[in-house]
Design goal:
By secondary structure, this protein is an alpha/beta fold. The protein has a domain at 5-168 and 197-227 and 285-293: Vaccinia Virus protein VP39 (Rossmann fold). The protein is 40% helix and 27% strand. Strands 1, 2, 3, 4, 5, 6, 7, 8, 9 and 10 form a ten-stranded mixed sheet that branches. α7 links the parallel β6 (129-135) and β7. α1 packs across α10. The protein is globular, with a radius of gyration of 20 Å. 39% of the residues are buried.
Length: 296
């Protein structure tokens, strides 16, 4: 199988749709500023969160949406995919020097597509945002030192919607080999904690303390677990590809790990992929969502 990160981002849309905590989402709706709204999304990928907010009618009639990602292939894919999505969903899309203008009736969204590392972007002191989004991002960064610069992108009274923060539980069912399953899960989580770029396999629970230290009031918080399972003998949408890609993350993280027998691990991966092909695998990952105010 060929693995494409933009394709993975497309495949996990339906997984994230189910996972995002609806109480936190409702708090976002209640606290969100009216038009014109300025949004900055960090690690925005190909723009699936933007299209989700449009599908769910969360953005006000006038908005500017800064879509920031460090991967050139994601930004390139966004330039191609967003106009296609727009045409299929009743929006008009026009290219602009900064990105794309989306229009549907009285609703207007200026999308700026920026390829940059977020810590290179922050010192440029962009215009502050009413809403900062970090979706499946914070558990990849060094904490707590990353929070103050990220939250500096907010204007006073602004909001940060911090979603899909991994929190230390991975479940693959049915069990294959209890001892090996447990060792692989533990080593996979440990690999998150030892990333050179930072990261935390218990990011969700630790964010309560980190946000308090950053003086960012928590307005709402709740679980946002990924739960992927077959229905009527098949996975919905593109979720089989999503599951194969999750196993690809395991493979990238743990191949040649000194604590794993390479043949046993390769066989384990083969068995898990076969479970997906037979629509048998159930995957659960525990995560947390937060809505917070700008630091006081």
């Amino acid at each position: 199988m060929e693995y494409s990160f933009p394709q993975y981002l497309l495949a996990k849309q339906s997984v994230d749709d189910r996972a995002l905590n609806k109480d936190v989402l409702q708090a976002l709706r209640l606290h969100l500023s009216p038009s014109p709204l300025r949004v900055i999304e960090l690690g925005a990928g190909i723009g699936t969160m933007l299209t989700r907010l449009l599908r769910w009618d969360i953005l006000p009639p006038t908005a500017t949406y800064i879509l920031l990602d460090q991967m050139p292939e994601n930004i390139a894919h966004a330039h191609q995919w967003l106009p296609l999505w727009a045409g299929q969903n009743g929006w008009q899309a026009q290219p602009t020097p900064q990105g794309i203008h989306l229009q549907r009736g009285e609703q207007s969204v200026q999308v700026e597509l920026i390829q940059a590392d977020l810590f290179d972007y922050i010192p440029q002191k962009p215009q502050p945002a009413h809403l900062l989004i970090a979706h499946a991002v914070l558990d990849l960064l060094p904490m707590p030192q990353s929070l103050p610069p990220l939250l500096s992108l907010l204007q006073p009274g602004g909001l940060a919607w911090l979603t899909i923060n991994f929190d230390g539980v991975t479940t693959l069912e049915p069990t294959l080999h209890p001892e090996l399953d447990s060792r692989i899960e533990s080593l996979y989580h440990l690999s998150m904690d030892k990333r050179p770029s930072g990261g935390d396999s218990q990011s969700g629970r630790h964010l309560f303390g980190h946000l308090k230290q950053a003086k960012a009031p928590i307005l709402a918080a709740g679980a946002s677990d990924w739960v992927v399972y077959p229905y009527n003998g098949e996975y919905p949408a593109q979720e089989a590809y999503f599951l194969h890609f999750i196993l690809h993350f395991f493979e990238e993280s743990l191949t040649r790990h000194p604590s794993l027998d390479p043949h046993a691990f390769a066989h384990w991966l083969q068995e898990r992929h076969a479970q997906i092909d037979r629509a048998e695998l159930v995957y659960i990952a525990h995560q947390m969502d937060f809505l917070v105010g700008a630091p006081t």
